[in-house]
Each structure stands twice: as C-alpha cells, then as structure tokens.
Amino acid sequence: MLGLRIADPAPLEILRLKTFDLYQQLLKPKPGPEQVVIIDIDEKSLNHLGQWPWPRTLLAQIVDIANTAGAAAIGFDVLFPEYDRTSPANIADLVEGYDSITATKLRSMKSNDQAFADAMAKARVVLGQSGFQRELKQWHSGKIKSAALATLGPAPDRFLDSYPGLVRNVPELEASAKGLGMVSIRPEKDGIIRRVPYIMKAQSLMLPAFGLELIRVATGQATILIKTEETGVNSLNLSSIRMPADRNAKAWLHFRPHKEGIFFSATDVLKNKVPPQVFKGRIVLVGTSATGLFDMKATPVDPGMPGVEVHAQLINAILTQNLLKRPAWANGMEVTLTVLINLLLIALLPRLGATLTIASGAIIAISLTSACWWAFGSLGLILDYAFPLLTSLAVTGLLVSLGYLSEEIDRRRIKTAFGQYLSQDMVAQLADNPDQLKLGGETKHMSILFSDVRGFTTISETYKSNPQGLTMLINSLLTPLSEAVVIHKGTIDKYMGDNIMAFWNAPLPDDDHAINACRAALEMGRRLDLLNEERKTRGEVPLAIGVGINSGECVVGNMGSDLRFDYTVLGDSVNLASRLEGQTKSYGVLIIVGENTAVHVAGKIAVLHLDRIRVKGKTEPEEIYAVLGDEGIAASDHFRQLMSTHNQLLKAYFGQDWKTVRKLSASCKTMAEEYNIAGLYDIYDARAADFMKQAPGKDWDGVNDRLEK
C-alpha cells in the first residue's frame, strides 16, 4: 500500500481529490466582500444583440461604461484572434451594390477593432489569451508582450503547465491592452477543476494567468515575484499580497456554487440598466454563460459553472486571502502517518486479537478524520485522511483473514510456485493435494530435456544495435517451445539464455515420463517449423534447435540456500541429457535420447540407434538414439524398412565391414531424406572411408569419443 501511494496511480489520485471535494461540499468558504462582477454574454444578450461575435464597437461601449463607472480593471475572458468582419471597410468589400461614393466612405471609416482599441487605451484592460496543444503561428502575431516575472530560487519552468502554442489577439488590441493573461485551465484527471494556475508556459515563455494579471493591472504593480525551491514553486508575491502555491504554481480554490448576484447581462449594461456603483472599485470581467458558447466548467461544488466565474473566484480568493493550502510537506506527512498507523496495527493485532485491534483502529480513524477536518475548516489546509484509513482497513482485513486462511494460502503458494512451469491441470492437482509436493529432495526415476538454439552467438551479433529485438526474438521462440513442454505434462526447470531445461515425473508422478518427454520434443520441432514459416514471410533467417533427453535416477526438490532456493533436479542423468543436446549438431538430427529413454519408448516413439559415444567428462560409453517421430511414424512400413537397413549398417560398422557400411549408407541416405537426417549417413560413409585407409585395429570397441560438449 505504501508503494501504491508512492506510485500514485490515477484511481488513487482521484480518490484523494474526491476527499478534497467532500471538504468543500460540506464546509462553505468564509464570506467576504465581493471584489469582482461579471458582464455576462448570456442567452438574453444573444437574443437582443444577435449571435456572437458581436461588432467590437459594442465591446468598446462596454469598456467605456465600466471605465466611466470607476472599474479597477476590465478583463475579457474571450479571445479576438481575427479582425472584426463587420468593420465598415469589410462591409464595403462583402456587400455588392454600393455605389463608389458609399463604398469609398465606408472604407475610410475607422474599423471596429480600432474603435475597441481606442476605448481600451483609456482604461485598464486585460485581454485573455489561450494555450494551444501544438505549435501555432498566427499570421498577425509579433513579439509576445508579458508582465515582468521575477524568480527567487531555481527556475520553475519544468513544474508549470506548458503549451507548445499560443492563441493571441489582433495586434491593435494587444497594443492597447494594459495586460495579457492566460485563460487556459487544465482540469484534473476526472475532468473537474480544483486548481487554477498562477503562471503557465506557452511558446517557451512564462506568462501570468488571467486572474493574476488583472490583479497586477488593478493594483498598478509592475512585477510578479515567484518564489521557488528545488521541489517546485513555493509561493507568489504581488506587492503585499502573498499567494500560497503548490509545486506547479497553482492555487487551490475553496469553490462556492454559482452566484447569480455577480452576473449582469451585457444587454442591460449597454442599455444603462445597471447602476454605475456596481462597477466602482471592482474588477470587471466580460465572459459568457450562454450554453451555445461552450465555456462551462465542472468544479467540486457545481457540475456546470461558467468559466469566467472560475477566474472571478480566483481573484476574490487572492484579494481576500482566502486561498486553500496544500503544503509541500503534506505528502510526506500523510505517508509517514500511514506507516506509523499500520505498523501499530501489525504490532497490536497478534497481541490484542481482532476485536480490540478493530476498536483501536476505529479510535485512530475518528481522531485522524477529525484532525483533518479541523485543519481544513480552521487553517485552510487540505490533508488526505482517506488513504491512511483505506490502508489501515486493508492491513487490518489482511491480518484478520490470515488467521483463518492458512490452507488457502498453501494452495496459492503452490499455484504461484508452479504456475509458470506446469500445466494448469497439474497445478490444480498439487493445490488439492499439497502432500504430493515433498520439500527438500527425493530420488526419483525421471526424464530430463535440454533444448538449445543452434548458432545463437552468431544470431546475437546481428542484434548488437538492437538488444530489444533480440529479446523479442527469444520470447517468440521460447514461448511456443515452453508450451510444448507444458502441454505434455513437463515441468520447466529454468531458462538459460536460449536454452530450456525441463523434467518429467516431478512434482507429480508420471509413469509415461519418457514418452511424454519425447512427444514434447517432437512438438517443439513442429512449433519451430510454424515459427520459421512466419519468419520466412518476413524475410528472416530460419531458426534451428537441438534437443537432448535422458532418463535415469535424479534428486529433485527445493535446492539452494536459506536466502533463495529453486525447485530443480540434480544428478548424472541430468548432465548426460545436457551432453546429448550438444551432440545433435554433430549428428545433424533434431532430437537425441539416451539408452534408458529409448528402451522406455520403444514401439511408441520412432527411435533410431545413432552411435556409441563417450561424452566429455564421462568414462563410460553411452548408446544414443535419434527420435524421428511419434507412434504413427514408428508403425509405418517406411520407417521399419529404414530401421532394418540402418541396423544392418550399424552391425557392419561395429564388425568393421567398411564396404558394406558404405553401400548401406547410400541406401539409408535415400530413405532418410523424409526425416531430415540424411547427413547422418554422410558421417558413417566418411568414417568407413577413413577406416578403409587406416583400420582401427582388433581391439576397437566402436566408441566415438566426443571432445565437445
């Protein structure tokens, strides 16, 4: 749970934010003087004045009215990125039928944009501008004008909301405005606005937010001071006004529901139906609540608040010093508190029992919740009590459950230990009968399989610059090969690079372990063929493997150290299986098995006596066999004919009848092409040719010493 809090995935973050919402829904913000009024482009105004955008001469009238009434500053929460299409000159160009005198007169008249700019020049007006999610170059945009931002501490850029592009206003309006502020507000992950930024980045520049810029202009200040630390932004200062901030330079607002009393319809303002004292000494915002203009925001206390009102609430909170605080130490305190509470529960439960521990937990929960609510109501601190409570509930539930679920825990342990190596049916049998799993070591007759990719070192060299590609290649190969083992009741012991080690007859008994091991090896060959067909379509080189199988006495069980152990198998039979896999390349066959395995599968698997060899590290010779197919192949006339001729060849070979060996090698080679082992007979033909030149002697036992692994 502690790791979950540090990772802080989206669902956990949303839970924390919903807790903060509950604070706001149950505790109203402190009342204070109203510092902001809103001239509203509402449905009534659109009905009387026509669709938006209006001629900017109307907006110039609004500026004149508010300025004359003594507004401290006027802010437009609407953008003017293009020129007014209703300007007189544009009308002359758009409407046909004017005589030349009228058209000339229209073109000579002042544009609506200029009229708006002239009105703005006489007042303290702040225009909004918006971040854009890609780089944006407006045809009329020049150098960006911004308030002076001073930083005390490390640069805060990497902590700020950032936008590649910026939607600006036409140059004449920007030139006349006393300030430009960012109106962009990013909601939290659940779509609700809880924090409003003071500062943002757009087009690589730090720019003030709309509300903060309005306060700067209204108070006549020149510079906004940003105080930062290595962990992010700490606070902002504007003259004597200090604004607490989170690390991302955002303000936590204690929202109030939509307040109709601060909204005045734009049409009523233009008709002088609003008393001038409404605007006197206040910051006036021009924005919209009309549904069709799509500027509605969700807040913790209102699912549909006009966006302009969010800016108004930020301005009010700053001027009345009624901002919420989420201090930098809050996360650390909550995590520490979580650790302490849960360590206490872990210590108490075994001693006090479930009932007393739950009672103690209830007391802790009530105390914690009460303290957090008091901190919010009295100090404006936002602290998360939900996660410590959730964690303590989870820990308590786990501790109580462990006392009653020991048997289920054993079942899960077995499933976890063997689920990666056994088929689901075998895992289920072990889970139902855990006594079948003997911990430590036991001696059993088992079959062991090793498989290895041919020429893997060479393949790896081609992926020097693409190690991820090599990983994908190995995964695409080992997955089907591992499935072949599992579906034939095998246990995967380990992966060693491109090598797979598996065994049969443990942890569950398997009387047909030798047969199942051979069937798994044949299935590996079939699945490799399918994989190579896919690789061929992509123009990739085919892959080849070799498989060695041996049966014999082994010790199987949990082996290793007190710190770490694995369920594995040890013994001479294991080593021989590994050596047999190494010989597949020399003999040009897919699967080589030892004599014990061959005896167990005779008649049910098509096996062919290959040779008598002495592998590296052993003194006793071994009879080795090739596996060519399943019981269908073993029963076929073609295989029986090959095996008969092949046995005659071996009899002649061990009897030093070299001419017969060479004659029978040619016959076998023709018959063996179907099984892809024709190269085996080239080996015997070459040996016979060499022995014809230099006989091995009467004491020769037919053993071929293999020096390579």
Give the helix/strand class: alpha/beta
Number of domains: 3
Whole-angstrom Rg:
42 Å
Strand fraction equals 15-25%
Number of helices: 24
Mean pLDDT: 88
Low-confidence stretches: none
| Residues in helix, % | 40-55%
- Spatial shape: elongated
Distance between the termini: 50 Å
Give the strand tally. 27
Q: Major sheet: size, sense and barrel closure?
A: 9 strands, mixed
Give a quick set of tags describing it.
single chain, 709 residues, alpha/beta, Alpha-Beta Plaits, 3 domains, 9-stranded mixed sheet, 7-stranded mixed sheet, elongated
What does this structure look like?
The chain is an alpha/beta fold and 709 residues long. It folds into three domains: 31-319, no CATH class; 438-632, Alpha-Beta Plaits (2-Layer Sandwich); 636-709, no CATH class. The protein contains 24 helices and 27 strands. Helix 17 runs antiparallel to helix 18. The chain is elongated and about 125 Å long. The protein starts with a helix and ends with a strand. The model has no long low-confidence stretch (mean pLDDT 88).
